[in-house]
From TrEMBL, chains A, B:
InterPro entries: Asp/hSer_DH_NAD-bd, HDH_cat, HDH_CS, NAD(P)-bd_dom_sf. Its EC number is 1.1.1.3. PANTHER family: HOMOSERINE DEHYDROGENASE. It comes from the Bacteria. Belongs to the homoserine dehydrogenase family. GO terms for biological process: methionine biosynthetic process; threonine biosynthetic process. It catalyses: L-homoserine + NADP(+) = L-aspartate 4-semialdehyde + NADPH + H(+). Residues 11-120 form the Aspartate/homoserine dehydrogenase NAD-binding domain. One of its GO terms (molecular function) is NADP binding. This is Homoserine dehydrogenase. Residues 128-306 form the Homoserine dehydrogenase catalytic domain. Pathway: Amino-acid biosynthesis; L-threonine biosynthesis; L-threonine from L-aspartate: step 3/5; Amino-acid biosynthesis; L-methionine biosynthesis via de novo pathway; L-homoserine from L-aspartate: step 3/3. The keyword Oxidoreductase applies.
Length: 393, 393
């Protein structure tokens, strides 16, 4: 029935080990022939004959028809992926940064070579959102895709809102538990969810936007005053990427903290879990929930991609090829809460109207309407210490 | 890019009307040419030229390449579906009973004719669970599929547990609001979720089991004592179908009420909503949530099937064709709560062991281990007035 896959894997962490173990126990018609690793000397749990530091031992082995790329370095990952695709091998990757920055060229290379590149593991771990957007939701009918895409930030926010921890303590705990990197900027600064959003936008609407052009503001400026404000109104703050269709063929993309009410299903997504909220014509809300981060959830998505390759599955990128293409816009009004200390900020950032204004010796905030374009242009002013912005419904 | 679909639709209810409206407003490369209806005289919101009572006006129209079947009568629906497939037309259906009873022959007809039959709308409305089981989860790696598949029963249970209503009052309200039929047996007796479970089992494990062979016990014998018992232990009762792999290649299938703790994500699924819980190797829990019942959720699934047909999508039924087939078993131990009035029941139903025994003037219950096989053989004794059974963790 299925094609036998002979796999060369780049990187050997918890995912690689886990994949190896499960592939051994199950009758999946798969074999991992080689792991390419950086450090040959490191002690391994598997026979040393399985390991090499020479990428070509995989890329030039004609018997290996599938490359699984699980390394952190985005540039190295891109180089491996391109070489493997051009060598006629199918590739599975979970490197969101590499993918978000290079999707268009990677799609072209797939079309030229006929090779297949799958990357479900790059967005929200075990949640099969790419597959669902690719296969199930017609872009004409898709109103929006949003959700909790970053487990580390969500873990921190859960600790802050449910256990009354300060942002700094919660961040430290997340780092101790391995939910956040030593340099947490990628996560708490909203870059990681932005990369995922760029990939989602491509499969949801056939729209490629370079991540540099997408606004990302994270939770790293969150202060006790903002938490107090939220709690008084029975709201939680969540870090939410959004891809949304406005007037027919225009698409808005951004990552911002948002005040979320009890009624929202995202209110209940806690700790390192992820949830993806899809709004489509007719369907009302559809919600996909699962473990977002960590070796095993990512491993499950990688494994699903691998098993799909046995049947020659490839993304068709239909939506990118539709007659009526959509376009990216930043002409979009948001209602936001902006907390600040220095009044002069308001002279530099143009709100279209201000609904509420609060000031005290400790902090000031306004609630008002501002355009996405303005937030992007004034990002440096808005995304600085002493200032916190979050979207309101 | 996509193939133009010319659609003939059987039935014209809220789904048909909604589909017509949305297809008109969107650029989907679809056209609904004819509705086949029972009653020509009924007043319609659309031009009468669109309606006919003659099935052949659709089945024998060579221009119509897609049949959408939305009628209640399972036998008539099967007849239409078979004729349409044999006439080389693709078919979209949401008739769970028709599908569950005839899946094998319908799959054979698809293989003979090359036509495609899609039926996402038949299971959990807008939740794309069939597609995900078909495309994303390898049966070797799938531990279990469970969840809340029946909106009517869940609506009733929500009213009982959250608003303290009696089962009878809640049922009446569900009927008044149109969440339950005048004869609610299909829903509250667990037949509807059983049909869905049979379809799920086919796409999850490639296993076809005739619904007559699958145990279904519903919530229609639920009593105040059972609710009191659950609430004292901070549990809710939910009606849960389960498809589960046991020892490698054996599959257990049944529909039973179950005591669900706060920690379970199903605990939070209320009213007419549906939720599907998938457990797979590595992935831990994955949860799909959405509106289960009603015209619009079903319409969204039907519409997704229709749009997929523009690209020639068909289920591949890979799992049904795997080298190592799985088999259905009823040799499976369950831990259950059994409430009864007549002590003699215990002499007729064989428990493997009894952990707890409670009796009072109002009611008695035991908690113990019993085999699925025994429950099936003694169903008439267990599923009668004055007796209520529910699974415990």
């Amino acid at each position: 029935m299925s094609n036998k896959l002979v796999i060369g894997m780049f990187g050997f962490g918890v995912v690689g080990q886990g994949l190896y173990d499960i592939i051994k126990t199950k009758d999946l018609n798969l074999e991992i022939k080689k792991f390419v690793i950086k450090n040959q000397d490191k002690k391994r749990s598997l026979p040393s004959s399985l390991f090499t530091t020479d990428a070509n031992a995989v890329l030039q082995d004609p018997e290996i028809n599938t490359v699984v790329e699980l390394i952190d370095d985005a540039d190295a990952a891109y180089d491996i992926t391109v070489k493997a695709l051009k060598a006629g091998k199918n590739v599975v990757s979970a490197n969101k940064k590499m993918l978000a920055n290079n999707l268009e060229s990677l799609v072209n290379i797939q079309h030229e070579t006929g090779s297949s590149l799958l990357y479900e593991g790059s967005v929200c771990g075990s949640i099969p959102i790419i597959r669902n957007l690719e296969e199930y939701y017609d872009n004409e009918l898709l109103h929006s895709v949003s959700g909790i895409f970053n487990g580390s930030s969500n873990y921190i926010l859960s600790k802050v809102f449910n256990e009354g921890q300060s942002y700094d303590d919660a961040l430290k705990q997340a780092q101790d538990y391995g939910f956040a990197e030593t340099d947490p900027t990628l996560d708490v600064g909203g870059y990681d969810p932005k990369f995922k959003l760029a990939i989602v936008a491509y499969h949801a609407y056939g729209l490629y936007v370079n991540p540099d052009k997408i606004l990302n503001i994270g939770i790293d400026k969150l202060g006790d005053a903002d938490v107090k404000f939220a709690k008084e109104k029975n709201l939680k703050i969540k870090l939410l990427p959004l891809a949304k269709e406005v007037d027919g063929n225009q698409i808005v993309l951004y990552v911002l903290p948002k005040f979320v009410p009890k009624e929202s299903i995202l209110y209940a997504v806690e700790n390192e879990n992820n949830g993806v909220l899809v709004r489509a014509a007719f369907a009302d809300e559809q919600f996909f929930y699962g473990k977002g981060a960590g070796g095993h959830p990512t491993g499950s998505a990688v494994l699903s991609d691998i098993t799909a390759l046995r049947y020659g599955y490839k993304y068709e990128y239909k939506k990118h090829l539709v007659d009526k293409p959509v376009e990216y816009t930043t002409h979009y009004q948001l209602r936001v809460y902006l907390r600040f200390s220095d009044e002069s900020l308001l002279e530099k950032v143009n709100f279209d109207n201000i609904e509420e204004r609060y000031s005290s010796k400790d902090f000031n905030y306004i609630i008002g309407q501002i355009s996405l374009k303005e937030i992007i242009e004034k990002k440096e002013l808005i995304d600085q210490q002493g200032v916190f912005i979050a979207q309101m419904d």
